[in-house]
Write a structure and sequence with these properties.
13 helices; Conserved hypothetical protein from pyrococcus furiosus pfu- 392566-001, domain 2; alpha+beta; nine-stranded mixed sheet; about 30% helix
Length: about 425
């Protein structure tokens, strides 16, 4: 089974691509999306976050939101803002952030491989987000935001990318508002397409890095539609994705902030931590960005501390128990701060590493939060080990940057 197929993409006109392509739907709230799309009638946020075209306060899952998304998307296709390629092709997608390049292959991934476990997941999904993306795909009859996949390094895929780019001009090359450069090449020659198809057939697995809700929604759309269209090669049997080698992908830290100290004063909180087994606590002169696994920074009342955990040797062989996000959750956040379910507890929030340690300090110093924890980034190999074991990671274990853009490539169903 080929894990990633070529497809006939709908994509923006070259002169409009920078205005159309938008950040993923789930990295902006409605107010941020409304501000970003202001003055940009072609912004894909008008499809992926269609509530911005309605009166503020209308629930994001209101029927009017999906109806407006369909109306805007239909207009984009009708008016030539988006156009469809004539043949099924692959696309090379490169993101450049702060001088670092990340290059992968865009195509449509096999839903069957996802259901059979060859496209592997590492986290649970939330029903509300999964329902929303399912409903949007059904309403649009399209997958409009790619799932971010990764795979272990493959010489053949690398060879196609490296031989294609020097000899073919990109169809898009622009710098977005966040200063990330997006470059796209169309792979439209049969020999290169065949080479990629064979390479993605040989790969043992793809791993979902970001986009679990989109992948789950795609599987639900497929299972519903195959009752009336059982063709295994039907468009609904695949979902939009970009696959990157593990040598290309970087995971950033995903830090934690907690609203209160669970009824403890500052000294009692520090005493509780100091009494925890196999954990050392020391004041720090500078902000703490952990330099190694099992090390954490903590910011409390204007002071930084360094925490270190000596994990029991037998736990180092468990792909979930050895994760720093597990260690912090089970040894401190739950027993000391009473955070039993970080997926649901409203007292905890998560801050992506792109925002820096300054964001942690600001949220504590403002009084919004009581304490912050800086994390060492989860390694990609740790993610793959969890997925290979069939387990899931704690919520908010990974933060991938840069983000793929919505609306750059669209798959019709």
């Amino acid at each position: 089974m080929t894990l990633l197929h070529p497809f006939c993409a709908w994509r923006p006109r070259s002169d409009l691509v920078q205005r159309v392509a938008a950040p993923p739907y789930d990295v902006l709230n409605s107010e941020e999306a409304r501000a970003m799309a202001s003055g940009l009638p072609e912004s894909f946020l008008r499809v992926s976050k269609a509530e911005i075209g309605l009166e503020p306060g209308i629930p994001v899952h209101d029927e009017r939101v999906y109806a407006l998304a369909r109306e805007c998307f239909t207009a984009f296709c009708r008016d030539g803002i988006l156009h469809q390629d004539a043949h099924p092709w692959y696309y090379i997608y490169r993101l450049t952030m702060q001088g670092r390049e990340q290059t992968g292959i865009a195509g449509v991934a096999s839903v069957a491989a996802y259901l059979e476990g060859r496209i592997k997941k590492h986290e649970f999904t939330r029903p509300d987000k999964e329902n929303d993306r399912t409903r949007l795909a059904d309403t649009l009859n399209a997958h409009a935001g790619p799932v971010f996949l990764t795979h272990r390094h493959d010489v053949a895929i690398k060879g196609v990318i490296e031989s294609w780019i020097p000899h073919h001009p990109p169809v898009y090359d622009f710098v977005a508002g966040d200063q990330v450069r997006h470059t796209l090449w169309v792979v439209d020659q049969s020999a290169a397409i065949s080479a990629l198809q064979e390479a993605f057939k040989r790969l043992p697995a793809l791993y979902i890095a970001d986009g679990h809700h989109r992948a789950a929604a795609a599987s639900r759309v497929h299972l519903a539609r195959r009752q009336h269209d059982p063709n295994p090669n039907a468009p609904h049997a695949r979902f939009l994705a970009v696959a990157f080698s593990d040598t290309q992908v970087r995971i950033m830290d995903y830090n934690r902030v907690v609203r209160d100290l669970n009824g403890l004063d500052e000294q009692a909180f520090l005493d509780r931590i100091a009494a925890l087994p196999r954990l050392t606590l020391a004041p720090a002169v500078q902000p703490v960005r952990p330099a190694a696994r099992h090390e954490f920074g903590m910011y409390l009342k204007g002071r930084w501390f360094r925490l270190k955990v000596a994990l029991e040797p037998h736990l180092e062989s468990d792909p979930v128990q050895r994760l720093d996000v597990t260690i912090l959750q089970e040894r401190l956040l739950h027993p000391v701060l009473g955070i039993a379910d970080p997926r649901q507890d409203q007292r905890i929030d998560f801050v992506g590493g792109m925002r820096g340690l300054e964001a942690l300090v600001q949220r504590v110093d403002s009084g919004e939060m009581a304490v912050a924890f800086s994390m060492y980034p989860t390694a990609l190999e740790e993610l793959m080990a969890v997925a290979d074991s069939g387990q899931v990671m704690p919520p908010k274990s990974t933060w991938f940057e840069p983000k793929l853009r919505d609306g750059l490539l669209v798959q019709m169903l």
